[in-house]
Amino acid sequence: MGVISEFRKMGKNGSYHQTLIKDLKRINEKLQFLGALNESLTEGIPFTVKDNICVKGFEARAGSKILGGYVPPFNATAVERMLAKGFGFLGKTQMDEFGFGSFGINTQVQARNPFNPDKVAGGSSSGAAVATAVMKYHVAIAESTGGSISNPAAFCGVLGFTPTYGTVSRYGLIDYANSLDKIGIMGRSGDDIREVFDIIKGADRYDSTCVDTKVKGEGKKKLVVINQLMKGIDEEILSSFDSLLSQLGEMGYKVEHVSIDSITKAIPAYYIISMAEASTNLAKYTGYKYGLQRESFTEKYNAFFTGARAAFGTEAKRRIVLGTFVRSESVKDKYYTKALQFRTAITNKLGQILKDAFIISPTMPITAPDFEQAAKLTPLQTYAMDSLTIPPNLSGLPHISFPCDYKRRMPVGAQLITGHFNDYALLDFVSEWEKRFEYRFKYSLGAI
Ligand code: GLN
Question: Can 124 be counted among the known catalytic residues?
């Protein structure tokens, strides 16, 4: 049974929520995972919301200085649906600026890993993963463009579910890359994620890319490992993954290895497409209508614009420059169009495999690194960390990261991918896995 049903049975409110908020404030001093908090919460199953998703009346910065002070006057559809089902909004969770990052360090407030605060929490949904790892009765609404749910879920030892692109409305989500962005869920059990998914999914008149297509749960007994993806992975992660495969063997799954050469192009294709889209999305933050409001409107346009855009962090600036470049007339066929071709080729290839199998891999090539180690990586080394999480995101495929082992007291995650609109199969799989494997948590705030 998931924590949602358990909490409903207990029917806690009032002082329960107030005590939880007090405890959260204390632990947040150490782990820095929460932004705006709903201090007056007195009822409902607690849920947190990634800071790029709008909640009426609460500051939404999307991890960026440029949105400092922005308080949305409306709720994102996913949030609206949670509130309508009696869930209690607890607070916003920290993230890399606009979702640009893999470690939660590309922002002013950097969430820390609950297993070891010297280590990063992952990214970009860093705070959502920490919140899930820290609270007993709670679910997190997060978002992934290229792995931002899987990655921090793996680093913090929780479940991270990214549904099929277009099943959950993006209305009220502050855009990173519209053709890739997906709202998803983090939790501590498959049952909880299923319940939340059922609430937030489904067509929405405010998002024309969101559909009502029936979501299936067709289980597969074949697991495919893609050879090219298994390169550059730490030895300890490989040993955890081998042991996972043998346990799944005992559960009746058959493992097959296949080669897909084009999969090595997933990272460049993703970064070209996502940066191209990001650079257009960030164009509106000029300080006039959108973005940090400047005190004086008397400067000349260039000076005003330059001053306002200085509020972007380094990674955001890098993406604006590169994203604008790859879609410029003289080179767009060489980069942008080619990236779209690889995206289609990879999607077709994965689609064939997924007809009668799941695809499985570790989620991340390493366990959570120290802040110092993460800061030393070059942008290209950082992008390479996404090699396992980008393929399903590029293709809009549903995937889930689940804890499968612990190495040097840090969690290790594995990622399962299935075909479009077969999302329930992932949740069924995880429910089966949970019967054999017990997830470990360092904290369980709010436990009764
Ligand atoms: N690390 C990837 C990026 O920086 C993924 C981020 C995300 O999914 N929002 O684009």
Answer: yes
Q: Tell me whether residue 381 is exposed, middle or buried, using C-beta atoms within 10 angstroms of its C-beta: 0 to 12, 13 to 18, 19 or more.
A: exposed
The Cα–Cα gap between 395 and 262 comes to 13
Q: What share of the chain is helix, strand, coil (3-state, %, to 5)?
A: 40, 20, 40
Q: What is the DSSP string of 175-199?
A: -S-TTT-EEEEEESSHHHHHHHHHH
**198-211 pLDDT per residue, tens:** 999 999 999 999 99
Q: How far is the CA of 207 from the centre of ligand 1 (A)?
A: 22
- Give the nearest ligand 1 atom to 274 CA: 10
Q: In this structure, what token pair is assigned to residue 230?
A: 């298994």
Measure the CA–CA gap between 447 and 445, rounded to whole angstroms: 6
- Number of domains the chain contains: 1
CATH code where residue 150 lies: 3.90.1300.10
Distances (CA, A) of 162 to 4, 20, 326: 19, 28, 28
pLDDT of residue 440: 97
Q: What pLDDT, on the 0 to 100 scale, is given for residue 91?
A: 98
From the CA of 176, give the closest atom in ligand 1. Answer: 9
For 77, the domain range is 1-448
Number of neighbours of residue 310 by Cβ within 10 angstroms? 12
Instruction: Report which residue type is found at 57.
Output: G
Query: Among this protein's residues, is 148 annotated catalytic?
Result: yes
Query: How do residues 135-167 score in pLDDT, each as one tens digit?
Result: 999 999 999 999 999 999 999 999 999 999 999
| Distance between Cα 144 and ligand 1 center (Å) | 7
Lining ligand 1 with CB less than 6 A are 99-102, 124, 144-148, 176, 274, 386
How far is Cα 67 from Cα 185, in angstroms, rounded to an integer? Answer: 24
Q: Whose CA is nearest to atom 10 of ligand 1?
A: 100
Residues 24-57 as b/e (b if ≥16 CB within 10 A, e otherwise) read beebbeebbbbbbbbeebeebbbbbbbbbbbbbe
For residues 165 and 144, what is the distance between their CA atoms, to the nearest angstrom? 10
- Residues 448 and 227: their CA atoms lie apart, in Å, by 46
* Residue 162 token pair: 């990214």
pTM comes to 0.97
Can you tell me the distance from the alpha carbon of 187 to that of 376, in angstroms, rounded to the nearest whole number? 31
**Cis before 124 (ω within 30):** yes
